[in-house]
Design goal:
heterodimer; A: 329 residues; alpha/beta; 7-stranded mixed sheet; 5-stranded mixed sheet; B: 395 residues; 14 helices; 7 strands; binds thiamine diphosphate
Chain lengths: 329, 395
């Protein structure tokens, strides 16, 4: 396949990535609510049922535990199920299947069984939605051994990472930054994937402060880095991309270089990804640090009514405030 | 082979797994109806006969007040829709077409009966006395519900499909423990109603609720509004045997009712609630109706359903039907329908004004009511938040 540069949205890139995976591997099947004719409420699977048939793109009954449990069965039978959870807040009925079965099957079968499945979850806030439609619940799954957890922040990553996730023989929880679905980016089709599924990537090199971000916060982090740059502060933005496993070498290299680390995520900070990252950095880069790791995230309350979103979600100001506090040490 | 081996029973079940062909506009011979689509009172049949007693008090005045409820509820709904279109609300789930299902059910409830709604039950809310303005807050993004459920015995809307079915069942178990079932005192005996849609019947919680209610014999009435669509998925993606028939397998009587016939939904729900209050256990009602509009204002139904289907259901409109009946029976005076429309206009105006004037809550409020007792982390974050916000004012 010859290479061709294409500009597309994250939504379209996910669609193209799944299409490519379905063309390559006839065992890839899609399951979810409203993913067939409608193409999903975000249209991520648009056209796939039409082109691959109802056998491969299944509009399931409205039951997430059912979707997840049957996906396990399909995987045991040699299929590669890609499950769509309609919104972050609706994954909980499937929580038991994910934690008790999906995550542990390989381990408890002494490696005899594999569950090469992908659980796609549109996540995060900032879209003015009613409750249960804006959550960032990645820490629950990253906390659970046996699951790989990744999240894309650009069209290019969306395109490649979804294919890598589908190709993975381990179950992957694949988080999609829903408020960024319509952000456009360039993709080099036909080339090899530019990064591994579990690589962190330095988005903006810098020297003063490391800013760790992922998913929807990457864009905010890049804008913050630009703003800081005009004030003479050099921020290095690291897009984690993978939350389990973490790309420890890349994270530590940046932390050791700058000596200051800020973590930004939408999720509530208490026992969130930032807590793990802070522990990692303070333990492994202790003698390089000029300041404690600072976390910027959601407050430790239930996701609030949408009129509070603008202050609940970390924004440019809150990130720069954290950068200032880090530099003040 | 021993003698007591049971011979396989011949059943009527089809040998194939093909879903039975279904006409989604025809509820079938078991559906309870009192008013046909032309507003004519259907003569007593074997199917509706058992419910006829529950309409004995339905006189001209009652029919007019049911009509009024239907019209006002539709108006609440269309105003919600309009407010979303004007940017005053973030989302609105319309009940258009389901007014009779909800008003019949809502009017059958007594004050002490408790309702557990989904998110589309604006008509039940109305009948339970909830001010429609209170429904708007969560769709405007100023709160997650915002009414006191215990004031009108109308629980908060539940968005996660199926969750509330178990809550209703548990609440009914509590009523039972309180001894408020089968006392014979109509003002004290209490029942609970749980509302969900056809899609909801697939959810685990729904099926567990039926098991629990059946086993506990609790005073709960499950009211499934089968509006034939769960966003883009039609009934045959959710079940092969319809909910009212499936109920019987759980040990719960199931009845299908014409959801666009307010007399039928009223009668059937009254009967079920009476059973529940009297200690005869749960009932499942499937209201056969149709979602005339989009799933919500975010949805585009032209992507997945044909207009012809909607046109057929238009002819079964619940309000037209009762209006024709009132006219044919000569139960209204000149100008009465217009007076109801005028009342609806006033209500819509009040809702619109109240919505537009609904203040944004101070951001600090988002830290309120996370816990009953003070929680140090919340207190600390609130203080940090306040100081941080204040730092902008200093600049
Ligand atoms: C657990 C869960 N999964 C998915 C959703 C998203 N969702 C909202 S409404 C809906 C369809 C509901 O259909 P139905 O139960 O028939 O009720 P209706 O909306 O037609 O009244 C879906 C899938 C949800 N709210 N909760």
């Amino acid at each position: 396949m010859s290479s061709a540069l294409q500009k597309m949205t994250i939504a379209k890139a996910l669609n193209a990535g799944m299409r490519a995976a379905m063309e390559t591997d006839p065992k890839v099947v899609l399951l979810g609510e409203d993913i067939g004719k409608l193409g999903g409420v975000f249209r991520i699977t648009e056209g796939l049922q039409k082109d691959f048939g109802e056998d491969r793109v299944l509009d399931t009954p409205l039951a997430e535990s059912g979707i997840m449990g049957t996906a396990v069965g399909l995987a045991l039978r040699g299929y590669r199920p890609v499950v769509e959870i309609q919104f972050d807040g609706f994954v909980y009925p499937a929580f038991d299947q994910i934690i008790s079965q999906v995550a542990k099957m390989h381990y408890r079968s002494l490696g005899h069984l594999r569950l090469p499945m992908v659980i796609r979850i549109p996540y995060g806030g900032g879209i003015g939605a009613v409750e249960h439609h804006s959550e960032s619940n990645e820490a629950y799954f990253a906390h659970t051994a046996g699951l790989r957890v990744v999240t894309c922040s650009s069209a290019e990553d969306a395109y490649w990472m979804i294919q890598q996730a589908i190709a993975s023989d381990d179950p992957v929880v694949f988080y999609e930054p829903k408020r960024r679905y319509h952000e456009r980016g360039e993709i080099e089709l036909g080339e090899d994937a530019p990064h591994g599924l579990h690589d962190a990537v330095v988005r903006t090199p810098g020297t003063d402060v490391t800013l760790l971000a992922y998913g929807p916060m990457v864009k905010t982090a890049m804008i913050a880095a630009q703003a800081a740059d005009t004030e003479g502060r050099s921020i290095e933005v690291v897009d984690l991309r993978s939350l389990s496993p973490l790309d420890v070498p890349t994270i530590l290299e940046s932390a050791r270089k700058t000596g200051r680390v800020v973590v930004a995520h939408e999720a509530q900070t208490f026992l969130g990804m930032g807590a793990e990252l802070a522990a990692l950095v303070q333990h492994e880069a202790f003698y390089h640090l000029e300041a404690p790791v600072i976390r910027v995230g959601g407050y430790n309350i239930p996701y609030p009514p949408s009129r509070h979103e603008e202050v609940f979600l970390p924004d440019l100001d809150r990130i720069l405030d954290a950068v200032d506090r880090s530099l003040a040490y | 082979m021993s003698d007591d081996v049971v011979a396989p029973v011949e059943t009527a079940a089809p040998a194939t797994h093909e879903p039975p062909a279904r006409d989604i506009t025809d509820g079938g011979p078991e559906m309870v109806q009192f008013l046909d689509a032309e507003g004519r009172r259907i003569p007593q049949t074997e199917v509706n006969g058992p419910y006829a007693d529950y309409l004995q008090d339905v006189d001209g005045e009652m029919l007019r007040s049911l009509y009024r409820d239907l019209v006002l509820v539709r108006r609440v709904d269309s105003e919600g829709h309009a407010l979303q279109r004007q940017g005053e609300l973030g989302l609105w789930p319309s009940l258009l077409g389901q007014e009779a299902a909800q008003v019949g059910a809502g009017r059958a409830m007594r004050t002490q009966d408790y309702a557990f709604p989904g998110y589309r039950e604006h008509g039940v809310a109305w009948c339970k006395g909830v001010d429609p303005v209170n429904l708007l807050g969560m769709f405007r993004g100023v709160n997650h519900g915002g009414w006191d459920s215990n004031e009108n015995n109308f629980h908060l809307y539940t968005i996660v499909i199926g969750n509330q079915m178990l809550h209703a069942t548990g609440y009914a178990m509590g009523v039972q423990k309180d001894g408020l079932v089968g006392t014979g005192d109509a003002d004290r005996d209490t029942a609970v109603m749980a509302f969900t849609g056809d899609g909801g019947t697939a959810q685990g919680d729904y099926n567990e609720a039926l098991v629990f209610a059946s086993v506990a014999h609790s005073p709960v009435v499950f009211f499934v509004q089968n509006n034939h669509w769960a966003i883009s998925e039609p009934n045959d993606r959710q079940f092969i045997i319809p909910p009212y028939q499936r109920a019987r397998g759980f040990g719960i009587p199931g009845v299908r009712v014409d959801g666009n016939d307010v007399l039928a939904t009223l009668a059937v729900t009254r009967a079920a609630l009476e059973r529940a209050r009297g200690g005869q256990g749960p009932t499942l009602i499937e209201a056969f109706t149709y979602r005339m509009g989009a799933h919500t204002t975010s949805d585009d139904p032209t992507k997945y359903r044909i207009a012809a289907e909607v046109d057929i259901w238009k002819k079964k409109d619940p309000i037209d039907r009762l209006r024709k009946h009132l006219e044919a029976e000569g139960l209204v005076e000149d100008g009465w329908f217009e007076s109801i429309d005028a009342e609806a206009d006033e209500l819509a105006q009040r809702i619109r004004t109240a919505c537009q004037q609904m203040p944004n809550p101070p951001h600090e409020d988002m830290f309120e009511k996370v816990y009953v007792d003070p929680h140090p982390l919340i207190e600390r974050e609130r203080a940090e938040f306040v100081a941080y916000q204040a730092s902008f004012e200093e600049d």
